[in-house]
Amino acid sequence: MTLRHSLSQQWSKSILAHRLALGLQASDTVQPLFAGATSLSSMTITIAALVFSEGYPLWLPEMHSDENTPLTNELILHSLFNASRLLFIKEIEQGALNQAEHLVLTTAYQWTQSLQASSVQNIKLNTETEQLCQLIQTIYQQLEQMRHQKRQSTRNMGS
Q1: Taking a C-beta distance cutoff of 8 angstroms, is the pair 16, 51 a contact?
Q2: How far apart are CA 118 and CA 26, in angstroms?
Q3: Alpha helix segments (H runs only) across 25-126
Q4: 13 secondary structure, DSSP code
Q5: Which residues make Cβ contacts (< 8 Å) with residue 114, sequence separation at least 6?
Q6: Cα distance between residue 38 and residue 132, in whole Å
Q7: Rounded CA gap, 60 and 56, in Å?
Q8: Three-class SS state of 53
Q9: Domain residue limits, the chain
């Protein structure tokens, strides 16, 4: 990777993180999640790093630094899905996530639930959006189930 390409990708990550933050901060469901030590900005930087970990994503249109608008719900959803997918693999393989990574998964789960709830009231989600919401929720629920089983087995070992 050339220096120019690397700098360009870092710039794209920062733009994605900023526009993700703009989109997520408008959500009443997501806002209460950031009362702790991890800020919205830290979490969106984590998401952007995960999204770009496999190169520039094909689904992400080129973004410019002068754009100060939130990402569309579809692009937020794609970002959250890609981050959730990679964090699912990381937790399965390595067994632990840091606080920002846990917050990414929780935010993705909460945000997809609110997106589905608002679609019931307003407009029907398209099939791809509905499928991504379901996949994110499945990832979250499977990780929660796995964590619960680990806690149970740890408790049983002490008895």
Answers
A1: yes
A2: 14
A3: 40-51, 73-94, 99-121
A4: H
A5: 27, 28, 29, 30
A6: 25
A7: 8
A8: strand
A9: 3-158
Handedness of CA 78, 83, 85, 88 (dihedral sign): negative
Instruction: pLDDT tens for the chain, 159 residues: list them.
Output: 577 767 778 888 999 999 999 999 988 888 888 888 889 999 999 999 999 998 889 999 988 877 789 999 999 999 999 999 999 999 999 988 999 999 999 999 999 999 888 765 566 778 888 999 999 999 999 999 999 988 888 776 655
Are 51 and 75 contacting, i.e. CB atoms less than 8 angstroms apart? no
Beta partners for residue 53, in sequence order:
55
pTM, two decimals, is 0.89
Nearest in space to 100 (alpha carbons), one of 28, 26, 17: 17
Amino acid at 67: E
Q: Take residue 11 and report the two structure tokens written for it.
A: 């710039």
C-alpha–C-alpha distance, residues 5 and 91, integer Å: 30
For 133, the token pair is 């919401």
Q: What are phi and psi of 68, to 5 degrees?
A: -120, 40
Residue carrying structure tokens 């806690």:
151
Provide CB contacts within 8 A for 76, sequence distance 6+.
Answer: 20, 23, 24, 70, 111
